[in-house]
Write a structure and sequence with these properties.
alpha/beta, Rossmann fold, 2 domains, 5-stranded parallel beta sheet, 14 helices, 12 strands, D-isomer_2-hydroxyacid_DH
Length: about 350
């Protein structure tokens, strides 16, 4: 019997052994590095192409350069044999899930495994923004120390003590952030989710409404997925509701913030500083934002560690293997958890 065909989109850094083991039960195919969306769509419909026999797709965030978004056009073009798309990442906003659900194609992501590395990055950016470390670092590189005085003339920062942190999105990453922040002495943690969590998951955080969180937080910590409802949820109106001198930290997705509104607020001092790992149109980042000394930013490095990347890549393989052996992915995305058709999926 022929092995199931698995299409791997995107480069693999550390999970070569896992993919080699998968090769014992599946035929793994790839696309050329310089392949385009047009090439991919054509291959999907070419009966002479191995891609047209694909049953499971494993994809990375970077593979969008070869295929474009996983949108309605791409979903329509996929072979009828495709049973699942296994995405390597916690966020999967490159995939229009409803279009794949309509074709009874499962979509999985990699939750939980990203929590610790992302939370570590978040805390680094939060403390850096609170203390004005980026401003001081820039001044030192410009040889302004000691000529400009103490700390090379950087604005004096603030301690965590007495501050209220508003967690927008108390999921796995949000909870990991709270655990890391507690020893620093913050006075209060509040959070807002679409629905209040069970008490055992709140971990001492107080549930408040969205507007209330904006009004009372000294630090707004953003940890929500990007979707139609959350795009630009932090816009000029939301920022105007925040305290003067608020600190905003975002390691979720750039487009949950209206970037231009944030830039204006940073220039005016309404937002005293920001810690950013993600950007609205990354990898393109406005020079206007990059040039602001009150922005502590890194280029989407939240999970940029050997250990986390390896675990994520290997988990994608586990999702693929689960589809082959059981017909179902291990970590279906939340939007599909109640879909009845998933129960009917069979091993490949």
């Amino acid at each position: 019997m022929a092995k199931p065909v698995v299409l791997r989109l995107g480069a693999i850094k550390y999970a070569q052994e896992a993919w080699e083991r998968l090769g014992q039960i599946a035929q793994v195919v790839t696309v050329e590095d310089n392949s385009t969306r047009a090439d991919f769509l054509k291959a999907c419909q070419d009966s002479g192409s191995k891609i047209s026999k694909t049953q499971v797709i494993a994809r990375t965030f970077a593979s969008v350069q070869n295929t474009g978004r996983f949108d309605a056009e791409l979903a329509k073009a996929l072979p009828e044999s495709v049973a699942a798309v296994c995405h390597n990442g916690a966020g999967y906003d490159q995939i229009d899930v409803s279009e794949f659900a309509a074709k009874h194609i499962q979509v999985s992501n990699v939750p939980e495994l990203v929590n610790n590395a992302t939370a570590d990055t978040h805390v680094y950016l939060l403390l850096g923004a609170l203390r004005n470390f980026e401003d001081g670092h820039r001044r030192m590189l410009e040889n302004k120390w000691p000529s400009s005085g103490a700390a090379a003339g950087a604005p004096i920062g603030h301690d965590p003590e007495g501050k209220t942190v508003g967690i927008l999105g108390l999921g796995g990453i949000g909870r990991a952030i709270v655990e890391r922040l507690k020893p620093f002495g913050f006075k209060r943690f509040v959070y807002h989710n679409r629905n209040r969590l069970a008490p055992e998951l709140e971990n001492g955080c107080e549930y408040v409404g969205f507007d209330e969180l904006l009004k009372i937080s000294d630090v707004v910590s953003i940890n929500i997925p990007l979707n139609a409802k959350t795009r630009h949820i932090v816009d000029a109106k939301a920022i105007d509701m925040m305290k003067d001198g608020v600190v905003i930290v975002n390691t979720a997705r750039g487009a949950v913030i209206d970037e231009q509104a944030l830039i204006e607020a940073l220039k005016l001092g309404k937002v005293r500083s920001a810690g950013l790992d993600v950007y609205e149109h990354e990898p393109q980042v406005p020079h206007e934002l990059l040039n602001l000394p009150n922005v502590c930013g890194v280029p989407h490095m939240g999970t940029h560690t050997v250990e986390t990347i390896k675990k994520m890549e290997e988990f994608v393989v586990q999702n693929v293997e689960s589809v082959i052996k059981t017909g179902k992915v291990l970590t279906i995305v939340p939007e599909l958890k109640s879909e009845a058709w998933i129960d009917d999926q069979k091993p490949l």
